[in-house]
Amino acid sequence: MTRWLAAALALLMMLVGASPAGAQGFTAEQLVLMKLFGTDPISSDMFAPGFLAQVSMDQILEVFNRTRATVGAPVSIEKSGPNTYVVHTAAYEVPVDIGLDRNGRIAALLIHPGSPTFASIDDVIAAINGLKGKVSYLVTRDRSVLYAQGQAAPIAVASAFKLAVLAVVADEIGAGRFGWDTVVHLKAGEVSLPTGEIQNFPPGSPLTVHTLAAFMVSQSDNTATDVLIDLVGRDKVAAKLGTDFALKTTEFFKLKADPALRLRFGSADTAGRLKAAGEMDALPLPNAADVAAPLDAGIEWYAPPARLCSLIAEVAGLDVFEINPGVARKADWSRIAFKGGSEVGVASLNTDLTDKAGHHYCVSLTQNDSQVLDEARFTALYTALIDKLAGK
User: Fold this and answer.
1) pLDDT tens digits for 66-96?
2) DSSP one-letter string for 328-346
3) Is 372 part of a structural domain of the chain?
């Protein structure tokens, strides 16, 4: 249920001033990136004071130590646009946005997910098939299947289920039952654990349906999700998912923290689960540290890749998807709709794409395992898959 991070850490600030000219045929940005991704020590004097006020050196070193170990040393650094570069290593491509101040110090930095270098999309699929645990995927172009594995079999998808919530909200608005500008007041019992921001709002806060949907999609906000489930009804969400029961996120966390309740819930029928959900209303939210157990069968949200592609296609035109495009590069596509999900042992990434020629794609990839996943590898392969579809 943690928010799916497209990169290990996004280091982003406002661009301050203009960078000085580079030397020896390289821009100043290229020289700085060579040092960041290379083997030289990274020091605080490389960063503007305003940047360090927002991001600590410990965070910076953690990110680059991990990045260097994953992608390897830079072979070349290509300028791809104003303040944008692609760092090429022997096995990876890493897009980076960077801005320097007038003293040549880093004032803005955003590291995008790196994608492994593959000769063909078939090579990417082969690498995906090598992921551990259960792996399902569906890649379509203009509704024709290009690649698929387990496309019709339900699999745990974590926060990707929120596509079903959004689809029901859109249906209800289309039926005239309420509008995007309808105001809903936050109830104390709807406050969930992060990810998100709405859990920090005081009970009674007035929130529009659009605001709740935007937080749910762009930040995978759990509290916003539960408010919307209460608004539309869990039965309608379950029907969209193609299941007989849809958990609220508060219920998910309470079940993860209570083995006895989890066992009883997991073996119950729909009526028993509804009864257990009513009992959970009286339970306090657990601590975040108590919900970090790996995937439990039945204590999740399940949907096959085909259902996820259908759901995201249904809502892809909504403006709430303009906030967070996921790993797809905006320059490559005319429209992007993205929703991911993750918890310990679950990762799911789903993107609806329209290219500049008008062709429509869906790319859905989900991995389940009883152990902690290598989310960096999972995300890198998904990024490579989308890049290959874009002709990279």
Assistant:
1) 889 888 889 899 998 888 999 989 888 899 9
2) S-GGG-SEEEEEEEEETTE
3) yes
Sign, CA dihedral 356-361-362-367, equals negative
Q: How far apart are CA 208 and CA 185, in angstroms?
A: 9
* 123 Cβ contact partners less than 8 Å away, ≥ 6 residues apart: none
What's the confidence (pLDDT) of residue 185? Answer: 98
Q: Count of H helices and E strands in the chain?
A: 13, 14
Q: What is the mean pLDDT of residues 331-348?
A: 96
Domain that holds residue 385: 121-156+302-389
Q: Is residue 182 part of a domain?
A: yes
What letter would DSSP give residue 72? -
**Hey, how many other C-beta atoms are within 10 angstroms of the C-beta on 366?**
27
Report the CATH number at residue 262. Answer: 3.40.710.10
Q: Give me Rg for the CA atoms of the chain.
A: 22
Residues contacting residue 46 through CB under 8 Å, at least 6 positions apart: 32, 35, 36, 105, 106
Please, are residues 220 and 4 in contact by the beta-carbon 8 Å criterion? yes
Q: How much is the pTM?
A: 0.79
Structure tokens at 19: 């960078």
For 220, left (φ over 0), alpha (ψ -120 to 50), or beta? left
User: Are 104 and 125 within 8 A, CB to CB?
Assistant: no
Domain total in the chain: 3
Mean pLDDT of 227-249: 97
Same domain, 169 and 282: yes
Provide the token pair at 244: 């007989």
In angstroms, the CA 250 to CA 204 distance is: 18
Report the chain's mean pLDDT, rounded to a whole number: 91
Q: Is the pLDDT of residue 60 over 80?
A: yes
Q: How far apart are CA 261 and CA 277, in angstroms?
A: 10
Same domain (yes/no): 226, 316: no
Give 119-155 pLDDT, tens digit per residue: 899 999 999 999 999 999 999 999 999 999 999 999 9
Q: Alpha-carbon distance 283 to 189, whole Å? A: 10
